[in-house]
Design brief:
Blueprint (H helix, E strand, L loop, with lengths): L1 H41 L16 H20 L8 H26 L20
Length: about 130
Amino acid sequence: MDEILIPISFFGACVCVVYFTTQARMKRAKMEHEERMLAMEKGIPVPPRKEQVAKNPYKWPIILIALGIAWLGSSLVQGDDGFLWSLLPLIVGVGLIYAHQKTDRETRQSTSGRMDPDAPKPINFDSKSGAE
């Protein structure tokens, strides 16, 4: 009986965490909405939205890389033959870092390549007739 209670209680705890987190987020959004609507009704300037904390895009890749290194070290020290499974989180973490770096580089290139809207547009020539 004890063998089944542990997974059930773990699942129940996970459901409770998700439920209460969602409820708190919804309550915060409702209060912010009511505050903004009240400000509009009274004719005062609408308060700016609270900035969310900037998320660290490297958090999960670093955790996965650390998990993979720890698992790999543990497997090698114990002489376990299944050490190749430890490479999975390590490779996923490295892949996530690479994907973020590539996306960030492409975003910087696309925003830096934008032209000033007031600048003259380049002349496009028709390759067949040579006319504009």
